Amino acid sequence: MNPEIQFALESEVTLITSFQDADPMGVIYHGNFFRFFEEARRVLMDKIDYGYLKMNESGYMWPIIDTRVKYVKAIPFNHQIRVHAKLTEWENRLRVDYVIYDAQTNQRMCKAHTTQVAVSIKEQEMCFASPKVFIDKVNQWHQHGKLA
């Protein structure tokens, strides 16, 4: 990809936090934030027609190898949030950045990222570059006028 071309492949989901996701203090347990990230990432990957079933069909699995989370503000249960996801790396690995906002006030409550790498299902080996099928999906999305 031409480094001068910048585009934003993004998604956003709105969720209401559940009681079962809360800890005894009534706020969302930190480990449950990953379910929110996953939902936003699922929608993001569906935009390029490369969700987890398509990944598997293409011969690759994409395990998470790194994650970083900064918890800015506690999120109570029964609270409406917006989870924004943005693809920020795709040529050698898949990195998605996230921001969780209070849906009412637009206040940032959390920011994070996850990094995934392609692993060949057949060889059970990590790929040092993203597979052509994934790069092609991102490029197809880009070519259809989805510029930021």
Automatic annotation (TrEMBL):
One MF term in the entry's GO annotations: fatty acyl-CoA hydrolase activity
Entry's family note: Belongs to the 4-hydroxybenzoyl-CoA thioesterase family.
InterPro entries: 4-hydroxybenzoyl-CoA_TE, HotDog_dom_sf
Protein name in the entry: 4-hydroxybenzoyl-CoA thioesterase
A Pfam match: 4HBT_2
Organism: Photobacterium sp. (strain ATCC 43367)
Keywords on record: Hydrolase
